[in-house]
Design brief:
The chain is an alpha+beta fold. Helix content is about 40%, strand content about 15%. The chain is globular, with a radius of gyration of 20 Å.
Amino acid sequence: MADVRARTPLDVLVMGKNVFTQISGALAPLRDALAQTLNRRALDTWKGESHAYELLKKTTLKDIMEPVPQPLLKPTSTLSEASHAFVENGHEFFYVSSDGKSLEGVVTITDLLRGRGQGATADSPVSEFMTKNPVALTADDDCAVASAAIREYRLKSLPVVAEKNDRKLLGCIRARRLMAYVFKQIDPQKDGPQARATGGGPDSKP
């Protein structure tokens, strides 16, 4: 009835419906977490928008992905260095890589603030508060997959890597980039006279 993809090795516990119902009924946090998960999966941004969905389905990430935000941080980069990177570059996140090529983690402003709140100092390495082994898509994945992943994990962006087993960073895809692409493609006239006069059209990238 469903497909499951794990990010890391794990053990799976299978229980009968009656047992699960009894447990979830007795444990409010489990019941609430299950309800939130079901609601999140049921929410489809493009429900009823067949043209938009087909557009996303036939467009691969390599066609519209954005460059990797620079600079790349190292696991040994300090909280202070990460803070300066946010201030100086204006990005919402930075990727972490030891060799400058392969994805190991991501640091958002939320991660940085959470790290500080949990006692990280200016000299603490980003490896202590970064999100390790983040969810990533490949350049050949289609944009419908990206839209579903962003919705499922409640993310604003996702890293794009070379292959499933090759975490070489190629770029990133943001939720707002997907939305802008769809809106421009399905109703290019909303770009206005200036965009058309400068060559902006269905195939233009924002």
